[in-house]
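Q: I have 346 residues here and want to know how they pack in 3D. Can you give me a structure?
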Amino acid sequence: MTFTKQNAERKAPRLLVLITLPMVLILITGCQKISPEPVKTMEVKPAEVKPAEVKPAEVKPAEVKPAEANLAGAEPGQTVSFHDKCAGILKNYVDDKGMVDYKTLKRKKLELNHLLDEFAKLNPDVYNSWSKEDKIAFWLNAYNIKMLKIIIDNYPIQSQRILRVLWGPDSIRHIEGIWDKHKFTVMNEEFTLKEIEQRFFRKEFDEPRVFFAISCASLSSPPLRNEPYYGCRLYEQLDDQAKKFLSSPLAFRIDREKQIVHLSAIFHPTWYGEEFISKYGTDKKFKDQPPPLRAVLNLATNYISEQDLFFLERENYSVKYITYNWTLNDSPSSMNNEQRTTNYKQ
């Protein structure tokens, strides 16, 4: 017993050590975390989805700048818009031969007055920004619309008996001061038809074909066009007017039997004849004619038939001016029977 007890007492500490040591090792080992290797967030970086690749700034508004619009291109639109104000009157009351339904137009006096107000109110700065062609178109339209207003203010034409015998009952010569007394306002400035003709058509604009475009409201006048003049089409329209006018026997005809060329009185040097010299004067053709007539004949060669052209350039002939017919260009629908008979005879 003694031996056994002593042996047990001796072995007890060792047994305690043996039992304790594994427990300590277990505790130590258990306290050490065997962590799995971290999944590195850098491998899938949010920054790699780059918002800069779809930058709003890359849709450049500068590519469609309002300031880059062609402002010069807007100007024709503005001028066309102004000229178009005359379109309704001319289309509705003027036929394709330049005859005017004055009887019906007289009932539209307020409409005509409103149109003339548009010329009065136009800003001179706007006008000054226009091209030469649009300025010419503007004054042609102003002149022709004012002429219509003068006629309807005096329609039907009243005349004295003695002058009726001399000029005919429907001559516009019965209207006193038609050229220099009937005033109207354009761009806040007062004008007469004569002043427009002298200042713009004879002096400022070197374009004698305008004299085929202004209406004298008479049968011998170049026909009133039933549309406004436009800067963008001006030269085409003037050429058409010249061709129409020279196709009329009241403006140009040849008497081959008597060797006479008959020309409208507006081509006389005391009327518009000298206005054609600057652009159509020539010293190569028609040398036996004075400069104004030489220029007129040279102009005519651009608009007459080849047969008539051959005659003018090769034959010997004299030139006579046709007596001007001042009878109003009143459309048949406006005339009474007596007027129709008188005009057809003329």
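Q: Anything worth noting?
A: The beta strands are 184-186, 189-191, 252-255, 260-264, 318-322. The two ends are 176 Å apart (CA to CA).
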